[in-house]
Structures are given as structure tokens and as C-alpha cells.
Amino acid sequence: MTSEVKKFDTLLVANRGEIACRVMRTARAMGLRTVAVYSDADANARHVREADEAVRLGPAAARESYLKVEAVIEAARRTGAGAIHPGYGFLSENGPFVEALEKAGITFVGPPASAIAAMGDKSAAKERMSHAGVPLVPGYHGDDQDDALLKSEADKIGYPVLLKASAGGGGKGMRVVESAAGFQAALDGCRRESQAAFGDQRMLIEKYLTQPRHVEVQVFCDSHGNGVYLFERDCSVQRRHQKVLEEAPAPGMSAELRREMGEAAVRAAREIGYVGAGTVEFLLDADGSFFFMEMNTRLQVEHPVTEMITGQDLVEWQLRVAMGERLPLAQDELTITGHSFEARLYAEDPEQDFLPATGRLDRFALDLVGAGLDPNKVRLDSGVESGDVVSMHYDPMLAKLIVHGDDRHQALATLNRALAALDVQGVVTNRAFLQRLATHPAFKGCELDTRFIEKNEATLF
Ligand code: ADP
Fold first, then answer.
1. Pick the catalytic residue: 16, 239, 298, 431?
2. Which of 69, 114, 153, 384 lies in the 20 to 30 Å Cα band around 162?
3. Is 339 exposed, middle or buried (0-12, 13-18, 19+ CB in 10 A)?
4. Is 325 helix (H, G, I), strand (E, B) or coil?
5. Which of 440, 394, 432 is closest to 45 using CA atoms?
6. pLDDT for 118-149, tens place per residue?
7. How far is the CA of 64 from the centre of ligand 1 (A)?
8. Tens-digit pLDDT profile for residues 348-379
9. Is the bond into 249 cis (omega within 30 degrees of 0)?
10. Which mutation among 140, 450, 453, 455 tests ligand 1's pocket best, with the greatest number of atoms within 8 A of CB?
11. One GO molecular-function annotation for this sequence (predicted)?
12. How far is the CA of 308 from the centre of ligand 1 (A)?
């Protein structure tokens, strides 16, 4: 149940890095007081420096700091924070955390715990989605887990199939099975992996799409029963299921397909009583058919490309919805202007199998004016500044470079100029890799699918 709506004047951001800074930027603009939380490794981090107040959570390890439910709630109590924004990762999709907040009378800037739970289990989520009339990849997601039954379901679906752990996430417990002969061994392997990672062996089987695009729809619902979609993002450029370069709108979408996918995404959200910002991920096949993959019940890393093409501030929408307000706009008031890209800058070494890099950032700057770039068209969302130390404790993403252009061609040209103008010294990053991606003829030509990087390996490395 959604707890009673309360106004709040102080927001605690239970996160770090670029997303903590980004959330606080909007909170400040809305006149809210901001509270940061930090681990010992982040005592002097940018998000701590920028907050009105900051509370130490514990040692560097995330499970002793950013993942510690009681410590975060205690920090909110001590600072009089009436609401908590979880960012992404950490506690953002943690049902028990949201329940604890509901009990403590603190507003969670996100969906009710019941909506998180509904999407937490892949098999159960598929059942709900099928009920709501959201298209699913042909497959099996039943309770009966007998070996022979699973095998006959796989035979029926037709190879290649994808085995997925029902309880899975982060690409773990997933295996492609090319033919009937390999099924049993793959099933055994997948079950072992899933048991080890999630303490659960249930599997679902899907038709394996060989060249799908990853297209996801941004949805928003308020607590008054209104729901809209803010169009889609194409996130097909992935390395080991991790997104690297995202764009909005997705190239080549017809108005009709856009509306169909958008409406399916809103149906998905309504089915589970969703409130706030959510993302419904689909696989889009070359023939224009699309299939529900999962719903992320939080703000996504790549939300800025949607902000760029709609002119909306999604964090402001989140905070307004959390305060009990209605959605700022109706579906027919939302439009797409131009095209946007986001490139994720990681502290990692593409020359060494993308090994995370650490060290002191001697320089981290983007001189837009010097590079002749329009500050309204380029945005750098970062959690670091010159002089900061990049540790090995957390996600190696340093910043996101987001650009806007009148069309895809212009936006891509701006992205390349901005990447070239970015001055990073002291820590190895994937910048040159991003530049090779953003200038790649196949990327320029919109030859997108989730194996883009794999397929173009010879010319990207
Ligand atoms: P996780 O929750 O572990 O991230 P997902 O179900 O979201 O797992 O799938 C992760 C990625 O695997 C997707 O982004 C897509 O690239 C690929 N994938 C998932 N399902 C299929 C499928 N049926 N066919 C082809 N690729 C798939």
C-alpha cells in the first residue's frame, strides 16, 4: 500500500557518485534541503561536498554502508529528512527497505514495495505481463521444473533457446542452448549457477532472438491513477549486457510502433499498481515485433537522453509524484524534439579486458566554450572533479556525457566533439573506446543489435 502522502522539505539521497549529484541538483532547484550519506571511502566525495548536510554510514564496503537499511533510516531520522531518493543500484529495488520506510513514515521516492516485488521474480513478472496483454518472448515460465518437461518445452519453442534463472539479474544464470543435444548439460550448469548466486534453481526458457535490439520505454505514473510514457531509448550497444552508449529516440521507429510499445509499457506499469519513474525493457526484432523483457522499478542511468528529447526533468517529476502531486503533463502534451546520445565514461582499461582502473584524477574537465560547443546541447553528469581519488570499491562509472542535436547525425557529431574535448588525466578511462564506437560506420548507419560490440570487435579494438 502507498502510505499517506506527506510534504517534505528535506531529501536524503541514499547513493553516491554522479546520480547522487544529479538528484541533489534538482532537489536544490526545487528549494529542498539535501542530505548526503557516505562511506569512509567517500568522506570527501563530490556528493558529500555538494550536500547541505552529510551523514557517515560506515566502512567502505557497500554492505556495511550504502546497503545498510537501518543506518540509512537512522540518518534520515537524525537530519529530519522526510523523503529518501535511492538513485539506482544499492537500495533502489530493495523491497524490505521500502517496507521499512513505509513503517517509519518516511517517503520513498519510488514505487510501492508491492510493485518492486511484482517485478522481482522473472517468472512471476511474465505471468502478470501476459495477463496485462503485454507481448512476451515465446517461452515457458511455469512452476513445473521437471527435467523432461523443460526439455520438451525447449523442443517446442525451437532452438536456439535461452535458459534464464527466474530469480536472476545482472546477466547471471543465463545460457544460450543451440540444440537439443546440449540442453541437459546447459540446464544443469544454469541451475548450479543460479543456486550459487540466488539460492534458487527455477528456470524459465525463452526463444533466443539472434539479432534483437534493446529498446526500453520510460513510463511515469502518479498516485492518482495517471500514467504516461516518455518514449523510448535504444540501448543495444552493450558489453557483457552492460550498456555503453544509449540514444533517444530509437532510430527507425514508426509512430505506430512507438505508440504500441508505449501503451504496452503503461499497461505493464498499471498492472502492478506502479507509482513513479519506471522503465519497461523490450527486445525489438528486425521485423518490428517486440517482447517484454523486464521492468526496472527505478530511475535509469540513461534517463538524461529522455530528458534531452522531451525537455522534462525526470527527477523533478519523481519528487513531485512523491509529494502526492499529479503528473506534470498528459500523454498528448509530450513530444520528441531532436535526438540525444549518452556515453558512459568508465574508469577502466579497454586494452586490459576492461579492468577497472583507480588512482587520482589529476584533471577532469570539459571546456565547452573552448571547444566551441553549445552548453545547452552538452551535459556532463559526473560524480568527480579534478583532484578526486577513484577507489576500487564501487562501480567504475565516472561520468556520463549527454548531447542533443536537431537530428541523429548532428547529435553524433556533437558527441564526438565533446568526447574529444573531455580532458581526463591520471586515471585510465574508456574514452578512446567510446570515440571508436561513436565514429564507427555501422553505428552511424544504425546497424544496431545487442551484439553490436561483439560483431564489430575487429574494428573497435
Ligand atoms: P538480467 O536481468 O540478468 O539483466 P535480462 O532478462 O534483462 O537479464 O537480459 C539481459 C540481456 O540479455 C538483454 O539486455 C538482452 O541483450 C539479452 N537477452 C535477454 N533475453 C533474450 C532473448 N530471449 N533473446 C536474445 N537475447 C536476450
1. 298
2. 114
3. buried
4. coil
5. 394
6. 999 889 999 999 999 999 999 999 999 999 99
7. 30
8. 999 999 999 999 999 999 999 999 999 999 99
9. yes
10. 450
11. ATP binding
12. 27
- pLDDT at position 1: 42
Question: How many residues belong to the chain?
Answer: 461
**Cα–Cα distance measured from residue 117 to residue 96, given in angstroms and rounded to the nearest whole number:** 10
ipTM: 0.96
pTM here is: 0.95
> Which residues, given as ranges, of the chain have pLDDT below 50?
1-3
Contact between 159 and 180 under an 8 Å Cβ cutoff? The reply is yes
Q: What is the pLDDT of residue 3?
A: 46
What is the grid cell recorded at 134?
Answer: 503485454
Asked if residue 169 has its Cβ within 6 Å of ligand 1, the reply is yes
Question: What separation in Å is there between the alpha carbon of 171 and the centre of ligand 1?
Answer: 7
Does residue 171's CB lie within 6 angstroms of at least one atom of ligand 1?
yes
Q: Is the CB of 243 under 6 A from ligand 1?
A: no
Q: Tell me the CA–centroid distance for residue 118 and ligand 1, in Å.
A: 18
Comparing C-alpha atoms, which of 42, 60, 53, 71 is closest to residue 11? 53
Going by their DSSP bridges, the two strands 174-177 and 161-165 should be labelled as antiparallel
Atom 8 of ligand 1, nearest CA residue: 171
Enumerate residues 6+ apart whose C-beta is below 8 A from 242.
none
Cis peptide before 138 (omega within 30 of 0): no
* pLDDT, tens digit, 9 for 90 and up, residues 204-261: 999 999 999 999 999 999 999 999 999 999 999 999 889 999 999 999 999 999 999 9
Give the number of the atom of ligand 1 that is nearest the alpha carbon of residue 170: 3
Half-sphere exposure of 209 (CA within 13 A, CB side): 23
